[in-house]
Known about the structure:
- The chain has a single domain, classed as L,D-transpeptidase catalytic domain-like (Beta Barrel), CATH 2.40.440.
- Helix content is 18%, strand content 23%.
- It has helices at residues 3-12, 66-78, 181-186, 204-215, 231-234, and strands at residues 40-42, 48-50, 86-90, 95-99, 105-114, 143-151, 157-162, 167-171, 194-196, 200-202, 220-224.
- Strands 3-4-5-10-8-7-6-11 form an eight-stranded mixed β-barrel.
- A hairpin with a 5-residue loop joins β4 and β5 (105-114).
- The relative contact order is 0.24.
Amino acid sequence: MSIVAGLAFALVMPQALFAATAGPPARERKGSADPRPKRVKKGKAGKATPVLIPAAAPVPLPAPSEATARLLTWVAAAHDNGRLPYIVIDKQSASLFLFGAKGDLIGQVPVLLGVGVGDDSSPGVGAKSLAEIGPAERTTPAGRFVARFGRAFGGQRVLWVDYANSVAIHAVITTNKKEQRVQRLLSPTPDDNRITFGCVNVGTSFYSKKLRPLFQRKGGIVYILPDTRPLDDVFPRVRLAPYLGDAAPN
């Protein structure tokens, strides 16, 4: 599937998100129990019959930005991911694109990001406790990262993007009900998707069924687009895309 066709498919087939608990990575707090209610009713023979709980409505997904399209074209043309799956995160639209090793689009979903607007991690932020990290330091850094699964605080396995600065991708957590993280994921705009300490939160169903199986064996590449810096400053090789020939994945 070409990138253009794949992205078009993603826009007409949005992913549904479900809330559940994830373990605590370094920049997050400990999760709570699954908030979804479990309901049963009595059948004719007195047996418990499950009552289906409607799934959350699909989230409207924005079209890829010009910067995202440029980056995707370069990755496909240069085969920069090698033989690994990869993720592209557009912070401005709070969107995540998941690709297989051959460049096939697996899906697009909204994400939660660091509350701080910025493209670099503060020096030493990975060694600080959560209470010591100020709002301006709670950034999701931009750049190209080699990501692998590993243990975080509490024994939970997360996809480490930038281990030194405690930035990971993991399923959305529901520790602080006032933060309304699930509701923020399900909202129709990216305006309220800045809430984390810097980690990237993804809907649990997408994370557990698609992202984790794809990355858990060998890891992969994560590309995070910038908030404020020019794309070419963060990814200077994007300029070479027009000279690399056919950008369609093999």
